[in-house]
Design a protein that fits this description.
Strand content: 25-35%
InterPro entries: PPIase_dom_sf
Organism: Ricinus communis (Castor bean)
Number of helices: 1
CATH topology of one domain: Thrombin, subunit H
Strand order of the largest sheet: 2-5-4-3
Low-confidence stretches: none
Keywords: Chaperone, Cytoplasm, Isomerase, Rotamase
Radius of gyration: 21 Å
CATH architecture of one domain: Beta Barrel
Distance between the termini: 23 Å
Family: Belongs to the FKBP-type PPIase family.
Largest sheet: 4 strands, antiparallel
Number of strands: 6
Main location: cytoplasm
Shape: elongated
Length: 110
């Protein structure tokens, strides 16, 4: 039997390139919207998140700026444009179940 790539108690780290993570930041997903477009504009705060309707359907956005007349919203994922660094500790290693092999993904704890 081949030696497993990882074993319980081992650690691994890896990087995910921008294009393999949340993609590049897109300037077209940052927009200034008139405050009048918001029913409760006086309650808006930077960092608030909500769903906006776009030509592609629902789009989660975050408020990134406020002026007396406009609200700046950003539809980019917060990690867009970033290389992702993962560090994991291996707790356990087991064979995939036939169901997991058929579905192509893990189904969780035993």
């Amino acid at each position: 039997m081949a030696r497993p790539i990882s074993f319980p108690g081992s650690s691994r780290s890896c990087l995910a390139r921008v294009q393999d993570g949340y993609g590049i930041r897109r300037d077209d997903l940052v927009q200034e919207v008139p405050r009048s477009a918001f029913p409760d504009a006086d309650k808006l705060e930077v960092g608030m998140q909500f769903t906006a309707q776009s030509d592609r359907g629902a789009l989660p956005v975050v408020v990134t700026g406020l002026t007396p007349d406009t609200v700046t919203v950003d539809g980019n994922h917060p990690l867009a444009g970033q290389v992702l660094h993962f560090a994991v500790d291996i707790a356990d290693v087991r064979e995939a179940t036939p169901e997991e092999l058929a579905h192509g993904h893990v189904h969780g704890p035993d």
